[in-house]
Write a structure and sequence with these properties.
Elements (H helix, E strand, L loop, with lengths): L2 H8 L2 E7 L6 H11 L8 H6 L6 H12 L5 H16 L3 E8 L1 H5 L5 H17 L3 E9 L4 H10 L9 E5 L11 H9 L3 E6 L5 H9 L5 E4 L7 H9 L3 E4 L1 H6 L11 H6 L3 E4 L4 H4 L3 H12 L3 H13 L5 H17 L1
Parallel strand pairs: 1-2, 2-3, 3-4, 4-5, 5-6, 6-7, 7-8
Helix pairs in contact: 1-15, 5-7, 8-9, 16-17
Bound molecules: adenine and zinc ion.
């Protein structure tokens, strides 16, 4: 391991942008398909990995929703979540805020309770091992707002264990404005608000997410950089951006990590963080993302410390919890 990789490995960090369905490794896909007697159109995990070539977000989403079809039981959701939590703990993550897409499952007649209870049981078990977490329910933006509202109502009995709502899936043609009512309802229920915006969609979608959805955190946000006044506003408001370098590369949002906007984001004073998005599909977990972008952009240890601190500052932990994690990073740096 290089000095920088060793430094990254030991750095305490949080992950704020992770789709649990996107942590489904090909080997697990086969195991779940076998135990649930679901046919999948692949013969081996290698064949599955070879199919993971995407030219845009929609290419990926088509395969991602197909993969999720093997998830059927509460135990599947428990095992999926547990495997991710073990993997990210090995990257020295101390806290995670994870997304799930209930509509992907309820549309296949998998009950909401199987999904939520399996995930929450795994999060609780990991808490006993020192990993804290928050769960974020994402609405699929290619569906209509009435479906999102029905999903929020389905989730009502679990809302004491769900920290917030998010918005994901096909961005182009599905602007944040489509979901302003369900976001208002979520806010009335005391939930935190996040949304994917400016991944493939224009900077205008980021403005809508701020002005119409009143988001607390911005997922991706890359294309904000096309609008200097928006960048100033995001920086002045200490808005956290959950940036996903390997995802951006695999979905052709950037053609080369050397062209990744993370450096410009930090230079503009944006509170950027590093995350893995859908690690099983994009070829890397949390530290792989740190390592890849640090190498491509020649990030310094000071940059990496800023990014790791941002991951806690941008979390939905309490101020006291954030301060404890930031102090742990300072202690790590002093001893490294
Ligand atoms: N669902 C899972 N990953 C996503 C991404 N990167 N963008 C939008 N929706 C997603
Ligand atoms: Zn995402």
């Amino acid at each position: 391991m290089s000095d920088l990789a060793t430094f990254i490995a030991g750095l305490p960090k949080a992950e704020l942008h992770l789709h649990l369905e996107g942590s489904l490794e090909p080997e697990q896909m086969f195991a779940f398909a076998q135990r649930n007697k679901v046919d999948i159109p692949f013969k081996s995990a290698e064949e599955v990995r070879a199919a993971y070539r995407f030219s845009n977000l929609q290419d990926f989403l088509d395969i991602y929703y197909q993969g999720a079809n093997v998830l059927r039981t509460e135990q599947d959701f428990y095992d999926l979540t547990s495997a991710y939590l073990s993997r990210v703990a090995a990257d020295n993550a101390k806290h995670v805020e994870v997304f799930f897409d209930p509509q992907t499952h309820t549309a296949r007649s998998i009950p909401f309770c199987a999904v939520a209870d399996g995930i929450l049981r795994a999060l609780k078990d990991a808490e006993a091992r020192g990993m804290t977490s928050k769960l974020i329910l994402c609405f699929l933006r290619h569906l209509d707002e009435a479906d999102a509202i029905a999903t929020l109502k389905d989730a009502e009995p679990w809302l004491d264990r769900i920290a917030g709502v998010g918005l994901d899936s096909s961005e182009k043609g599905n602007p944040p404005s489509k979901f302003r009512n369900v976001y208002r309802m979520a806010k009335e229920r005391g939930l935190k608000l996040v949304a994917h915006a400016g991944e493939e969609g224009p900077a205008e979608y980021v403005r809508e997410a701020l002005d119409l959805l009143h988001i607390d955190r911005l997922d991706h946000g890359n294309r904000s950089l096309e609008d200097p006044a928006l960048v100033k506003r995001l920086a002045a408001g200490h808005m956290t951006l959950t940036v996903c370098p390997l995802s951006n590369l695999k979905l052709c949002i950037v053609s080369d990590l050397k062209q990744h906007p993370l450096r410009s984001m930090l230079d503009a004073g944006l509170r950027a963080t590093i995350n893995s998005d859908d690690p099983a599909y994009f070829g890397g977990y949390l530290n792989d993302n740190y390592n890849a972008v640090a190498t491509a952009l020649n990030l310094t240890r000071a940059d990496l410390v800023t990014l790791a601190k941002n991951s806690f500052l941008g979390s939905f932990l309490s101020d006291a919890e954030k301060a404890t994690h930031v102090a742990a990073i300072d202690a790590y740096v002093a001893g490294a």
